[in-house]
Amino acid sequence: MKKEYNEVCEPVAMTYGMSDNLVGSGLLTQISALSTEDKRCLLGYIAQEVSSEEDDDDVDWDKMDSDLPPYTLDELYARIDESHQQYLRGEYVTAEESDRMLKKEFLWLE
C-alpha cells in the first residue's frame, strides 16, 4: 500500500506568503540568531513601521495644507536646465556611487 503525504515541509511553510526579496535577503537567518529581547524589540519596530505606513496610506494629500507654494512651470524648466548643465559639466555621481554614499552616511557599511 502506497502511503500518501499531504504535508508541507517546515522551511516552505515558514516562508509562505513572503516575497522572494525577503526570503532571499538573508534576514530570516539573521533573526534566528537574535536574543528573545531583540526579537521583541524588532517586532515592536516592525509593528510601528506598518502602522505608520497604514497611516500614510490614509492621508488625502490633496487636502494637506502646505506653507510651500508649488513651483511654476518656468521654475521647473529652470531646474531641469540647471540639472542638464550640471550633467554636461560632469557634476554628477553614478547610481553605484550614490548608493555607496548613502550606505556610508547611514552606517550600512561595516
Account of the protein in words:
The chain has six helices and no strands. It has 110 residues and is mainly α. It is extended. The model has no long low-confidence stretch (mean pLDDT 80).
Keywords:
about 110 residues; mainly alpha; extended
Helix-strand pattern: HHHHHH
Question: What share of residues are in beta strands?
Answer: under 5%
Tally of separate helices:
6
Overall geometry comes to extended
Q: Averaging pLDDT over every residue, what do you get?
A: 80
Overall structural class, as computed from helix and strand content, comes to mainly alpha
For the secondary structure, the number of strands is 0
Oligomer: single chain
- Which regions contain 5 or more consecutive residues with pLDDT less than 50? none
Short description:
This protein has helices spanning 10-15, 20-24, 27-32, 36-57, 73-88, 95-105. It has 110 residues and is mainly alpha-helical.
Topology:
Blueprint: H1 10-15, H2 20-24, H3 27-32, H4 36-57, H5 73-88, H6 95-105
